[in-house]
């Protein structure tokens, strides 16, 4: 949609209710959160701090619908579930890598969208 | 033997009690004994019987008593009798006058050791008499002790002289006190006398040739049963005149031990013969020595066949097992629960356990074996294991299905949400049709997912039922409206028929009842292309507290084949008819059945293929006690039925507290609410503690509460608000806004903490608006 491969901002736009300044604010927050939270999740996995990881992925669960990338959304859900029940943790790294891999192109596209508004 | 040597044997000074009232004679006795080399003694003289008895009361260690029968306080033979009565067993030598020799003899017969005639003995004779009496008395005492220890007594009887005597031990065996009871010949003649048997045995002894030994059971005077072994010898002293002598031995302990042994052997014999286990004794080479009946059953062989077996081990063990088993036997190592497969005569194998032992008295090279047949147990265990694996597999499968469904629900909600957004954008007619179609399919898919999750909840017993007030009329009205559009495209009439005497307000789980009816009616509509779908509700019975209702859902659809009626309530059952498989998981009716049965009701169905089906179910509800009360759903229906009564959105001034730590969610929630209610007053708290602080300053119409937050989470904050805050605050409706995917247990948990309802994030604006409106209106009505 709108030439983007990795993001779908329809939910964000819907929730902005046509208010450009709100959309801009939400985009700013998205950029900031993704840049901080995705690497943080990696650190938490390395530390095997499953409680903190669960909290981080739970927070990300309400952030990612604004990005509209279902692969990231699914990967994050897998991480949250594993961290919550502390089961199948051997796969957590793999899902984190999905987030890590998709994060740069997502950020790039979000920045493009943000640039359009400024 | 020299005098010194004789004395040395008696080196202890003997204590003599001299009972003599004549002091000069007493002095004479002292001088005589003092001069004698045969005894060294110390004499204590008492001049009367009374003083004699007093002396014995304080000291019973006298070696001998020299007793003059003529005393101031007692004279004659009675003196001796009184002394013996008072102190039996004493060593007494009687001193008599020259004219009283007969009295002396009588005294010896009565129990005195000897008698001496005054004036006819010198010092040595007196000393000798004392020495002999002392020694004899000691021998008699030792004999008595020996008899007591051996529980043996002796007896003697001379019928020609009317004489009978028995030792003290004989009396004790009969439970008698020998000091107080002495039987004479005359006593024996009495058939009731316990010693009468000594008379009877004399005749038997003569008949037996002069010697007899027999065992008898007697009941002693203290009513204890005793066993005695009695021996009797008949000695003919003159022709036809006999003296009978014998011994009696108490063999009670021996006899009781024998009886116990016999009983024990009998008990073991019973166990041996009646045991269901095979019990046997065999040589190490496999030759059977003894075996019980179960051995025949285990091996399936006759007794003859078993006795001809050369080596029973060949039937009990495979070759490898035999070597291992025999090695244990040869090392005298007992075997415990050694597993083996026994070969029966019919060629079948039985699974068994064997244990062995080596009895201390058993013949060398033999052992005892016990074999337990565990074939049935093993089969049951195998079955149980197989069942456990099957159950575990089913459980895992269900968990996987539930897990997958659970994970699918979130994206499905997102899909439907996105479709809701998309359908409001500028679309052409074709695009709108496509999206409508996708939305319908998505809703079906979501329904399937919800079915699976609910079936899983039922299976795991995590489903709970509410008890809330509701209006049956409102519930069915709502159902009618929901289904009306479904039948609109078909040539089907939807008809609801409610009994006239039905109570309107009931207590129960209205959501579950709605679900049951919607499922049954939805099925009826699905399978009916023309005709009608009818719901009938009638009262079955009623008490002061409860009412039983019968619900019938009747359709004129394709019907259900007779052979499928039994299985339609089983999970994943879908009836394939007329080349068509209708959509669904096949879980709907199974869920309905469970929901009804979990509430204590029952469901059944009847059908005529091609003509339609009817589903009946019965449920009990608590009746409402208060007249004229309004049910929760009734209010909702009233509200929905009268939208014109709503104040326009612009005029509504809701005051809403959003408690959310996520900035984006804060903005989105605020913006979304402001879009709907432009004048809404919104306050944002970043965590539960901040919310509580704000609530201490001002009240709100509703609180939107995130669950997972730092400092104080949504559950803690809700609990605080409900428990700690004043009445105008603690009853504010609280809607949880959570990204947690709720299951029944979570939902119940949230409600138990005071949360009224929940909205899943990312939320759909319409869902949020609806819930805000419902709860604010309900709250305002109650207040």
Brief characterization of the structure:
The complex is a heterodimer of chains A (118) and B (783). Chain A is mainly α and 118 residues long.
Provide a descriptive summary of the structure in words.
The complex is a heterodimer of chains A (118) and B (783). By secondary structure, chain A is mainly α. Chain A has one domain. Chain A contains five helices and no strands. In chain A, helix 1 packs across helix 2 and helix 2 packs antiparallel against helix 5. The longest helix of chain A has 28 residues. Chain B is α/β, with parallel strands linked by helices and 783 residues long. Chain B has six domains: 141 residues, Response regulator (Rossmann fold); 106 residues, Beta-Lactamase (2-Layer Sandwich); 99 residues, Beta-Lactamase (2-Layer Sandwich), CATH 3.30.450; 62 residues; 174 residues, Heat Shock Protein 90 (2-Layer Sandwich), CATH 3.30.565.10; 136 residues, 3-Layer(aba) Sandwich (Rossmann fold). In chain B, the strands form seven sheets. In chain B, strands 18, 19, 20, 21, 22, 25 and 26 form a seven-stranded mixed sheet that branches. In chain B, a hairpin with a 3-residue loop joins strand 21 and strand 22. The longest helix of chain B is centred in the middle third of the chain and has 48 residues. At the A-B interface, helix 1, helix 2, helix 3 and helix 4 of A face helix 15 and helix 21 of B.
């Amino acid at each position: 949609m709108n030439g983007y491969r990795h993001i779908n901002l329809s939910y964000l736009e819907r929730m902005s209710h046509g208010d450009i300044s709100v959309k801009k604010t939400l985009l700013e927050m998205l950029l900031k959160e993704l840049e901080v939270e995705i690497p943080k999740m990696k650190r938490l996995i390395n530390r095997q701090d499953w409680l903190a990881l669960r909290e981080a992925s739970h927070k990300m669960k309400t952030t990612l619908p604004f990005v509209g990338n279902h692969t990231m959304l699914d990967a994050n859900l897998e991480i949250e579930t594993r961290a919550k029940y502390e089961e199948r943790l051997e796969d957590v790294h793999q899902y984190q890598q999905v987030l890590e891999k998709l994060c740069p192109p997502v950020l790039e596209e979000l920045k493009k969208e943000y640039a359009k508004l400024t | 033997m020299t005098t010194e040597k004789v004395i040395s044997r008696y080196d202890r000074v003997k204590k003599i009690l001299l009972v003599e009232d004549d002091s000069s004679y007493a002095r004479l006795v002292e001088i005589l004994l003092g001069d004698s080399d045969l005894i060294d003694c110390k004499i204590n003289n008492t001049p009367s019987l009374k003083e004699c008895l007093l002396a014995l009361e304080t000291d019973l260690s006298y070696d001998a008593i020299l007793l003059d029968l003529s005393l101031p306080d007692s004279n004659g033979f009675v003196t001796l009798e009184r002394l013996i009565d008072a102190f039996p067993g004493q060593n007494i030598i009687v001193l008599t006058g020259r004219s009283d020799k007969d009295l002396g003899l009588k005294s010896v017969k009565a129990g005195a050791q000897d008698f001496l005639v005054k004036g006819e003995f010198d010092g040595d004779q007196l000393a000798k008499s004392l020495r002999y009496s002392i020694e004899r008395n000691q021998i008699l005492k030792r004999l008595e002790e020996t008899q007591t220890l051996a529980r043996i007594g002796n007896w003697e009887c001379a019928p020609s002289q009317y004489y009978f005597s028995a030792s003290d031990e004989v009396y004790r065996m009969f439970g008698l006190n020998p000091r107080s009871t002495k039987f004479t010949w005359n006593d024996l003649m009495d058939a009731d006398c316990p010693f009468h048997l000594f008379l009877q045995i004399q005749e038997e002894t003569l008949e037996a040739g002069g010697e007899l030994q027999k065992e008898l059971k007697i009941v002693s005077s203290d009513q204890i049963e005793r066993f005695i072994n009695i021996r009797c010898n008949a000695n003919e002293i003159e022709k036809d005149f006999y003296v009978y002598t014998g011994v009696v031995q108490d063999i009670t302990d021996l006899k009781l031990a024998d009886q116990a042994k016999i009983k024990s052997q009998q008990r073991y014999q019973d166990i041996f013969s009646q045991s269901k286990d095979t019990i046997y004794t065999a040589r190490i080479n496999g030759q059977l020595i003894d075996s019980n009946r179960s051995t025949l059953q285990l091996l399936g062989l006759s007794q003859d066949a078993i006795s001809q077996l050369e080596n029973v081990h060949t039937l009990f063990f495979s070759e490898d097992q035999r070597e291992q088993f025999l090695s244990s036997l040869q090392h005298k190592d007992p075997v415990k629960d050694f597993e083996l497969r026994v070969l029966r005569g019919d060629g079948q194998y039985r699974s068994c356990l064997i244990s062995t032992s080596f009895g201390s008295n058993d013949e060398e090279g033999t052992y005892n074996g016990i074999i337990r047949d565990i074939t049935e147990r093993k089969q049951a265990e195998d079955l149980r294991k197989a069942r456990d694996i099957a159950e575990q597999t089913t459980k895992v499968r269900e968990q996987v299905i539930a897990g997958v469904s659970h994970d699918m629900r979130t994206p499905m909600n997102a899909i439907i949400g996105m479709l809701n957004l998309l359908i409001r954008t500028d679309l052409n007619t074709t695009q709108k049709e496509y999206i409508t179609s996708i939305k319908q399919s998505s809703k079906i898919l979501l329904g399937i997912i919800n079915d699976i999750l609910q079936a899983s909840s039922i299976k795991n017993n995590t489903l709970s039922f509410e008890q809330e007030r509701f209006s049956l009329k409102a519930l069915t009205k709502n159902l009618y409206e929901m289904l009306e559009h479904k039948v609109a495209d078909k040539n089907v009439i939807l008809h609801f028929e409610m009994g006239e005497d039905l109570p309107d307000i009931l207590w129960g789980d209205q959501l579950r009842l709605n679900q049951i009816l919607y499922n049954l009616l939805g099925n009826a509509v699905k399978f009916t292309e023309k005709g009608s779908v009818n719901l009938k509700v009638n009262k079955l019975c009623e008490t002061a507290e409860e009412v039983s209702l019968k619900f019938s859902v009747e359709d004129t659809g394709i019907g259900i084949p007779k052979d499928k009626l039994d299985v339609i309530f089983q999970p994943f059952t879908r009836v394939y008819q007329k080349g068509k498989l209708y959509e669904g998981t096949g879980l709907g009716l199974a869920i309905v059945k469970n929901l009804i049965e979990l509430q204590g009701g029952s469901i059944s169905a009847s059908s005529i293929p091609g003509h339609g089906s009817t589903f009946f179910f019965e449920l009990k509800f608590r009746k409402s006690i208060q007249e004229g009360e309004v049910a929760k759903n009734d209010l909702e229906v009233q509200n929905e039925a009268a939208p014109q009564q709503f104040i326009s959105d612009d005029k509504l001034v809701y005051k809403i507290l959003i408690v959310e730590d996520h900035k984006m969610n804060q903005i989105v929630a605020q913006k979304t609410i402001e879009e709907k209610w432009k004048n809404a007053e919104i306050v944002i708290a970043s965590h539960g503690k901040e919310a509580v602080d704000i609530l201490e300053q001002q009240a709100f119409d509703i609180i939107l509460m995130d669950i997972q937050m730092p400092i104080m989470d949504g559950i803690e904050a809700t609990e605080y608000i409900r428990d700690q805050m004043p009445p105008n605050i603690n009853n504010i409706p609280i809607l949880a806004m959570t990204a947690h995917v709720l299951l029944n247990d979570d939902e119940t948990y949230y409600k138990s903490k005071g949360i009224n309802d929940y909205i899943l994030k990312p939320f759909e604006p319409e869902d949020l608006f609806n819930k805000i409106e419902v709860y604010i209106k309900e709250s305002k009505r109650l207040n």
